[in-house]
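Table S2 (continued). Query chain:
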Amino acid sequence: MTASETGVDTQAPEGLARPGLTATQRAKAILGGSAGNLVEWYDWFVYSAFAIYFSQHFFPGGDDLAGLLKTMAVFAVGFFARPLGAWLMGVYADHAGRKTALTAAVTLMCGGSLIIAVLPSYETIGVAAPILLVFARILQGLSVGGEYGASATYLSEMAGRKRRGFWSSFQFVTMVMGQLMALGLLALLQTTMDKADLDAWGWRIPFFIGAALAVVVFWIRSRMDESQSYENAKAAGVPRAGTMLLFTHFPKQTATIILLTAGGSLAFYAFTTYMPKFLTGTSGFSAPTATAITAGALVVYLLSLPLFGWISDHLGRKVTLYVAFGGGAAATFPALTAIAATDNAWVAFVLISALVFLLSGYNSVSAVVKAELFPTNVRALGVALPYGIATAVFGGTAEPIALAFKQAGVESGFFIYVALGLAVSLVASLFLPDTRKHSMILED
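Corresponding output:
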């Protein structure tokens, strides 16, 4: 069966496989693509960071934990919109181009953030308030679901072969920077505003900021260059892939991404977005201290990602995956147990930093490993859809499951759950080909 019959782009057209980008052009493309990713993830994480302040506005009642649980259930609803966004934007990116899909994704995020910023409370409009909150979160889920595949594909295609792991790690670098921005703004508002004002209206500020930043990113992305891989395939007349091609011709690659993402996404949300709540609700730290501990650990995370990306360019992607999944599976239960028992902020910081340092072995190569498994015409969809499915099932439910374990009085069960998820991903990584040597991205 020929490439044209299957719709699989197995090789670039002669004379076009070497785009010859200069270092400056490559860096500008990476930074331009990363800027939007940062704002997308800032908007996404602001919801979780400020949930404890706005939950009672949309889910009133006497039980704060129950209100928070409902709010985080809406957080999970956004995750379940991500596979749909991944599918829509993945198909769109493979047909219309990476740049066009990235611009569309940030437009959806702007709309979702603006709705939350101006949304009246339950007391004002009744049941319409939580319904509209769910709608806004679905818009954000569609946006982030599409953002991941398009940005992972774009960054991996624009990075050079020799430094593809390093440059593509900036997808998660900017993701963590977005998280740090959300936590930094939370810390700033916690120290400069009365809690009553923060509860009443201050929580709306970060959503207004997110909507404004999304407008700026829309302008930046509308002026980005298209990736050479996409342009090469378009010039060669390669048929754009359909959704069924992903499952019929790439079932192993699709299953591998789901299994890698399952443990990686679960651990990511357990060690980062859930951690401030864990530090306050279980360890007993004050909210500002918990925010500071988490932010400090995220700085360690941020610095570790390019390091592991660089290592993957020299030793291979599988080495860093083994560190992340093997080390993480072994360390999760004892580390989380110790964090739950400590009242020393420095001990908590060191333990959380150790967990995210290990996890960065996966996150640093998450984009490039997945992009290198697929040819150009199905790459964005191939990266986005299985990732979106696994993240919805495991990442999006991490916080509600953690809170459910806590309510049931068996919080340590969540620690075991995360460790087992990492162990499953470790097994999947054992069967992964060495994509550094056998990449489907043909351009240097």
